[in-house]
Amino acid sequence: MLPRQAARAHAPQHEGIAVIALIDYGAGNLTSVRKALAAVGAEVSIPRVPSDLDTAEGVIVPGVGNFQRTTALDSEWRDGIIGAVERGRPLLGICLGLQWLFEGSTEAPACVGLSLMTGQCDRLKGSWPLKVPHVGWNGVEFPRASRLFEGIQNGSQVYFTHSYAAPVTNDAVAVTTHGVPFASAVERGHVFGVQFHPEKSGDIGLRVLKNFLDAV
Amino acid sequence: MLSKRIIACLDVRNGQVVKGVNFEGLRNAGDPAELAQRYNEEGIDEVVILDVTATLEGRRAMAATVSAVAKRIFIPLTVGGGIRAEDDAAAAIDAGAEKVSLNTAALNDPALITRLASRYGSQAAIVAIDAKWVDGRALVYARSGQSGTEREAVEWAKEAAERGAGEILLTSIDRDGTKTGFDCGLTAAVSKAVGIPVIASGGAGSLDHFFQVFDEGCADAALAASIFHFSEHAVRDLKELLRRRGIPVRL
Known about the structure:
The complex is a heterodimer. Chain A is of the alpha/beta class. Helix content of chain A is about 25%, strand content about 25%.
């Protein structure tokens, strides 16, 4: 508990508002995520160095593109993020950020994921009429209750754009099918991940972000 | 199951929606952010802002427009029309667009598709193809349909996909503005030739035309402008009709 109290002591101006560290590692644009977080009342900071994570009350790893891009998060960043998780700070991976929570991906076999979730991400198998990338609105089915989808109806539609996906394991709290079923959201303790884009999924997406903030 | 997407296009000049808007029933229908918000409430799946200005002032106003729209709606937003180079794309994306749509610029410099895809991801790079039938060949036109090229639409779509485009926005010049329906044959040919999603555009005149382009045309998404401006409930009515006829949609 001590580090959390210390963090609060260093950030009295943020009292009552959760300060979320949004990790910018050059994988896509953060504007939309920032705007959506602002819309649900979060204060966002972009950490410049891993030690900036010490004062974060929650961490979000967004990102689109090739799994290779996650190598921009070097061992110091990984230690910083893992350290935040160990201090009890909630972590949310979005899209590529969800995939990075796993052990790795066949998209870039040499790159090691954060390994907070078990399994490898793999390419969606597309053959006519299924297209890959999987782009658009698709339903999420809930195998069990979760904090991320509190107040959200089973089968709700959210916006996806990706070619690789995480396997359905016990950590999956939402499953979507595009040719094969994949984990559209995962949750283990205070580690969360969504394959879809909550910042682009209308009111449902904003509710998912709000639910994450409630965990912070 | 993945839904078929319905996309509203806003033609914007100097910060105002300019084409095909019926102002009836709206206090300020010319404002892109208000119109985008109305569509969002009605259940539109995406919004495309098409910049129909050519001036520098117009392009500066565009960033403000994109930003204003992006503050109001949390669904995918694409900017097209004014993207001539990487800097234009960066400005649109920094203002809050997820995707940019390249047309003439991609024809002039096909490597631009790859540069944008590697900078922002393929999902951010849409290649717009304006096609017109000439002697039995669907040829690609540049500069808003002003300049013909020798490229065939299907071949150009395949090349764009190979170069990293995430989606194809296919507009039939023959059908555009005619309200006689989408060019389902052309859409199906392109959709079957590429592994990436194809957005059909040009010719929407009735709700039934959307069913046809998803059914016969094998489109992944359909885009229209004026048909949505004319009726308060067009988006919801359209989606309810599609669902009744077995097309998966988000309602």
